Amino acid sequence: MIKTNELQVGTLGGTLCSVWASVSWGDLLHTVIMAAIGTLVSYAISATLNRVNKK
């Protein structure tokens, strides 16, 4: 009988394998770059608003 933990690990492994096969390196790189840009813009806006609110 399969334990719940083994079933969850098997399901996760199968899901990761199917996602891994369908994602190209170009898509992954694009996602990482866009996330980094979004983080930098969010930080810059937050810092600017903090400076404006302190004055």
UniProtKB/TrEMBL annotation:
The keyword Transmembrane helix applies. Keywords: Membrane, Transmembrane, Transmembrane helix. The chain crosses the membrane at residues 28-49. This is Holin.
